[in-house]
Write a structure and sequence with these properties.
about 160 residues, alpha/beta, four-stranded mixed β-sheet, 5 helices, about 15% strand, elongated
């Protein structure tokens, strides 16, 4: 090949390589900027509005160790699927653990025959419906959805610390 053709091929390859790198950088920046970050918010059935919950109490509830509220009603726990960002954020923020650690609690209960796992709901809509319709129920939603629930479902005093 002639030196001119070699030069043109090298220049074209370099330009394509740079364009590809720029495209990858743009895709990475876009995905980082639009990454889903859920902001979980604890919700409950209005019948348990007098409860005050700290992280330890929430761990006992979500580990299925607390079976009744102070008013005597049965605790019903609802969760989102474990692969949903909202679930991971809730477990990390309110329970101060990783979802796999919570799974271990549930597996131990199921395999020992002493308990069951929480009820899994498929969507925020279903979470709101189930918690609103089940006395003693507790769950969580993304705080962006707060306008969709009754204020009476937010009165539990939950402390994230």
């Amino acid at each position: 090949m002639s030196p001119v053709i070699n030069f043109l091929l090298h220049t074209a390859q370099t330009t394509l390589s740079q364009a590809f790198r720029l495209l990858l950088a743009a895709v990475w920046l876009f995905s980082a900027a639009t990454a889903v970050r859920a902001d979980p918010l604890l919700i409950h059935h209005p019948s348990i509005s007098q409860e005050t919950l700290n992280s330890g109490a929430l761990v006992r509830i979500y580990a299925m160790q607390k079976r009744a509220w102070s008013n005597g009603s049965r605790v019903s726990v609802f969760i989102m699927p474990k692969d949903i960002t909202l679930h991971r954020q809730f477990v990390q923020r309110y329970l101060h653990m990783q979802p796999y650690q919570l799974d271990r609690f549930w597996h131990r209960l199921v395999f020992s025959g002493t308990g069951t796992i929480p009820q899994v709901v498929a969507s925020v809509e279903e979470m709101i419906e189930k918690v609103a319709a089940t006395p003693g129920a507790i769950g969580y939603i993304d705080s962006a959805e707060v306008d969709r629930i009754d204020d009476a479902m937010l009165t539990v005093k939950a402390h994230e610390t």
